[in-house]
Design brief:
Blueprint (H helix, E strand, L loop, with lengths): L2 H7 L12 H15 L8 H15 L4 H8 L5 H11 L11 H19 L3 E7 L5 H13 L7 E8 L2 H9 L1 E2 L9 H7 E3 L5 E3 L1 H4 L2 E5 L14 E4 L8 H14 L5 E4 L13 E5 L2 E4 L18
Helix pairs in contact: 2-4, 3-5, 6-7
Bound molecules: S-adenosylmethionine.
S-adenosylmethionine binds next to loops.
């Protein structure tokens, strides 16, 4: 048997090998940085290759140079979103990093709910909400403390850059596995079976949450203020300068005493750390000393 015959007789490789030059990687890294703040160092080249080959296959493209051409055109907007989805993860679960929900129950929500009962306005924001488990966990926590929350001016805004994931979050339908981290009491009160073996978030929790697409790297049609901002496991993708800008923008939208909760491997650094005091594990509070409190206007835009 000749060498050629032996090679031809083999099963085709499961994944086609696509040419991926350093120049292609640079185009993708620059675009991901400019549009989404993603920080892709040269060490991530293999990861980028493995995450994007599926897109090349689906698009019928021969190599990464063709892919780069596509994402650089104005028509490439949809693909740029697909690229973001491929390069980031939507991993989340109900009551993830439970300590933040404990802080909400024990410290943050009691005075806010008391204010709402007296006609005050309470706003929470889940920025980078993925498939909705985080904002619904916020809603469950509010309802635990205030079952009649719908009667008051209490709202949760939930945003994500990924339109597909926002669609899932709005639908609020999960399978049994995804509900595993829900305490039994919450599940029996706020989750209903849909008939096709899935489970849907109940009306009381849904009524508190509004969802919108929002790229944190762009302008925010939101004025705030927000009493609580959750932005967890999102900034981890961004470089230090982008993170520092983000913390500053959040600080702008918090009233003095407002809370920012971030992901377990994230840390507020840069100029905003003068305004955001670390008060617990990955928990920050806007300090009274802050001289940049620009958040006394009522919110407008996508937030209710
Ligand atoms: C790992 S999930 C975190 C979900 C949730 N916050 C949690 O901690 O469980 C990260 C989310 O950030 C979103 N994301 C990534 N870049 C973003 C950006 N530039 N603007 C808004 N959301 C972004 C992703 O689409 C994804 O849903």
């Amino acid at each position: 048997m000749t060498q050629t015959a032996r090679v031809e007789g083999r099963a085709p490789p499961a994944i086609a090998a696509y040419a991926f030059s350093d120049a292609d990687f640079q185009v993708i890294a620059r675009r991901a940085q400019a549009d989404f703040g993603l920080h892709l160092t040269a060490a991530k080249k293999d990861l980028v290759y493995s995450r994007l080959t599926k897109r090349l296959r689906q698009l019928g493209l021969a190599d990464f140079t063709s892919y780069c051409r596509l994402i650089e055109t104005p028509d490439g907007e949809d693909e740029r979103m697909q690229m973001l989805s491929a390069l980031t993860t939507n991993v989340t679960h109900f009551f993830r990093e439970e300590h933040h929900f404990r802080i909400l129950r024990e410290q943050v929500l009691p005075p806010l709910i008391a204010a709402a009962r007296n006609g005050g306005r309470v706003r929470l924001w889940s920025a980078g909400c993925s498939a909705g488990q985080e904002p619904y966990s916020l809603a469950f926590t509010v309802l635990l403390m205030c079952p009649e929350a719908a009667r008051f001016d209490i709202r949760i805004l939930a945003t994500d850059v990924d339109p597909v994931i926002i669609g899932r979050a709005k639908a609020g339908v999960y399978d049994d596995e995804e509900l595993k981290s829900l305490p039994d009491g919450v599940r029996s009160q706020h989750v209903v079976r849909t008939g096709d073996g899935k489970f849907s978030i109940g009306e009381k929790a849904r009524a508190l949450v509004s969802f919108a697409e929002l790229n944190l790297m762009q302008d925010w049609p939101i004025k705030g203020p927000f009493d609580v901002i959750f932005c967890r496991n999102v900034a981890i993708y961004f470089d230090k300068e982008t993170q520092a800008r983000l913390w500053g923008r959040f600080a702008d939208l918090l009233p003095v005493g407002g809370y920012l909760c971030i992901g377990h491997s994230e840390r507020v650094a840069g100029p905003a750390s003068a305004r955001l005091e670390n008060t617990g594990v990955t928990t920050y509070r806007k300090s009274a000393a802050s001289n940049a409190d620009r958040t006394s206007r009522p919110e407008k835009g996508i937030s209710r």
